[in-house]
Amino acid sequence: MAKVNLKGAFITFEGPEGCGKSTQAKLLYERLKKLKYPVIFIREPGTTIVGEKIRSILLDKNNKLTDKTEMLLYMAARSQIVDEVIAPALKAGQIIICDRFLDATICYQGYAGGINLSLIMQIGEFVTNKITPDLTILLDIPVEVGLRKCRVKIFDRMEAKPVIYHQKVRQGYLALAKQDPGRIKVVKVESKIKDTQEKVLKIVKQKLWLG
Ligand code: TMP
Question: What is the mean pLDDT of the chain?
Answer without folding.
Answer: 93
